[in-house]
Each structure stands twice: as C-alpha cells, then as structure tokens.
Amino acid sequence: MADIKKSQHGEWSSRFAFILAATGSAVGLGNIWKFPYITGENGGGAFVVVYLLCVLAIGIPIMIAETMLGRRGRQSPINTMSDLADEAGAHKNWHYIGWLGVIAGFLILAYYSVIAGWALSYVLKALTGSFSGGNPETMGALFKGLMDSPVQQVFWHSVFMAATMFIVARGVSGGLEKAVRFLMPTLFVLLILLVGYAMTTGYYMQGLEFLFKPDFSEIDGHAILTAMGHAFFTLSLGMGAIMVYGSYLPKHISIAKTSIIISCADTAVALLAGMAIFPIVFANGLEAGSGPGLIFQTLPIAFGNMTGGWLFGILFFILLSFAALSSSISLIEPAVAYLVENKNIARQKACIWAGLITWGLGVTVAFSFNIWSGFTIFGKGIFDLLDYLTANLMLPIGGFCIAIFAGWVMKPEDSKHELEMTNPQIYEAWKFLVSYVAPAAVFIVFLNVIGILG
Ligand code: TRP
Question: CB of 332 closer than 6 A to ligand 1?
C-alpha cells in the first residue's frame, strides 16, 4: 500500500532538501545553548562520552527507524502509527506513540520558544552595543536583567511563536528549504570563528580537557539519563518530528545515509559550541555549571572584546534564532498535520490553535524565571519540570516504543523493502541495534535512575 501513497501535505523536492530540513530540525538551541550548559553541570568529558555513545548506539538507529516509519505511513505520526499497526496486524494502541509525541512537542516548544526569545532579545542587545568591553560582571547583569523581566521575556517569546506559526502555516517545505540552505553553513563558519577566538584566550587547552577528558567519577545515573535524553533531544527524536519529516520524503532515497549525515552534522555543531564556550568560561573565572544562562553570559564577553565583535555578535544571535526557528517548526508540525488530516480544518486555522496553546504555556515558563520562581512541582520550577519531563522521560519512552515497533512489530520484509539497503549486512546491523541495543540501553538507564541497579 505504502508504495503508491504520497503525503497530502507535500514532499521535499530532493534528498538534499530533506537533509537540510532534518538538519535544520536537529541543529538548534539543543546544540548551542543546551549541550554546553548540561555538559558544564555534569562535569564535562565523561558526560560527553556517554552522550556520544548514545548518539551512535541509540540515536542513529532510531533516526533511521523514525524516518522509515514516516515515509511508509505518509501521514502525521498518529495516523502513520495506526496505519502501520494495521499493516503489521498489531493493536491500534500503537498510535498512542503519536499522541505522546504531539504532547511532548507542545511541552518542548513552550519552553523552547522562551529560550529562543532570549536569543532574539540578544540580537537587539548586540545591535545597541551592550556587549562592548563586556566582562563577567556586566554580562552577568545584562542576562539577569532579562531574567528578571517577565515583560521582555513574554514579548520575545511572542515574537518567536508568531514567526514559528507563520512558517508552519505556509507549509514546511517552501521557504524554509531556501533559508536553511544558506543560514546553516553561515552559522557553522561563525562557530569556527568563535573557536578561533577561544584559542586566543590562553585557556583553550583547559577547555578542551574539560570537554574531552573523561573522569567517570563525575557522573552518576542521573547524568547518564540526562546524556541519553539529550541524544534524543538534539537529534529531534522520539516525538514524531523526524517521522513527520520522513513522511514528506520521496521514495528511493537512502534513509540510512541521510540519518548518518544529519547526526554527524548535529554532533559537530554541538562539539564546536563546547569548544568555543568552555575556554571563555575558564578564562573569565566563570562557573561551568552555571545553568541555562551559560552561553548568554559567556559569548557576549567574546563579542565584546574581539575585533569585529559587534558585527559577529549581531550575526551570531540572528543565526541562532534562525537555527531555533528551523527546529521549532518541527516540534509543532506533527500536531498541525494531525489537525489537518483528522479535524478537516485548514492549515492556517490549525496553526492558530496549536500556536495559542503553546504560547500560553510558554508564558508560564517565562514567569518561572521571575515572578513565579518560587512555584515548584516535585521540587522543580516550570521550566525545569518541562525540560525534565520531555527530554529525560517522554522522548526516551517514545524512542523506545518506536524502536520496538520497527524492530519487533513491523514485518522484516516491510522494513527491508522500505529501507532499500543494498548491503544486507548493514540492514542486519541496523535491525540488531534497533531491536536489542537501543531499547535495552533506554531500559537500563531508566532502571539505573530508579535505583534498581543499585
Ligand atoms: N533538536 C532541536 C535542538 O537541538 C530541538 C528539537 C526540534 C526537538 N524538534 C524536536 C527535540 C523534536 C525533540 C524532539 O535544538
């Protein structure tokens, strides 16, 4: 059945277009904002090693699985999963993976948009010369000013949400392809430039050592869960984003190859960000584990003190905002595709509803950094709670189910046919990783955190 099926929402124009869109989804705040600060909070090298292992053994096989399921189902993740369950003669309940993903997408986008709003507000700060001559004190105060202001945060969050919904309303394949094609390489170049600046701080080796020299006494079960959760988060896996992008993928494009390319590009960006940030952290006597404000308190110091820093600062935060935008649209696309398919409403209208709900939740996240900072559930503020719930729980659970479905429920002849791997050994290797290694790894990490493994 799936052979003749096309997505009602359109298709990518080429293999390159898909790689761009999926890389655009993967590369975002996760790489540049989140990876450095969670690495800093979790002691550096050992955390990075676990994260890289998770990308290899769990992330890549699941990305292949998710793309494959999407292309075979050709619809929103909810309907895709229910059709594929039918095809495999399995229970309809598998479509709840799609629902889990839709909810995770809302929850992630709510805080993602607030952080992207921080990046937007830093474009303006860069433009008005706020970084000039910056040092740890002045840049710390600048960031604190933003944190303490619910009005500023809600304003920028609103701008970002509006931009996201505007693009999604027009359909993800058009203008986005063109924008990402040009913006991503530029961001990459700018990061390399920042690494170049980091080399001049005199603390470059110390930064590298922190990032790459593993000290396993630094991590516990919880750090391992965070590293695994981040592998899902940074590759946009476990909630149907890559599945919905896969559903717009034309036939006869190698899913395995594209998945590996996307994962490598994503990892490279994260490591470059780390290599730029930690030398600046140590050179300025800053705290590596200072939390979500890390890049906002470090990079402006670099921009404020390097030649041409004014321009680079503006460019950097513009590009970061665009990287966030090409990620955020993939967080809401599964929900919008579902509304269009099942509720028979126009894309624009679906976007307005989905956008309003996310925006409202995002406002509470913005408040959690200031007027509601005392409000906690399970000892966590709203931002921390949403981040924990999605990255550490919902995405790994979603990914686990996707792996089980692709490895055990779907008929091997169907997955073989869909993946069209010319080399049977590569298919077997993927099948093994997705059936055994990835689900077992997720399971063990969970048991470990619950404390069952001691
Ligand atoms: N991967 C993106 C980042 O690193 C965020 C993101 C986009 C995402 N779509 C997703 C995370 C789907 C989880 C699931 O910034």
Answer: no
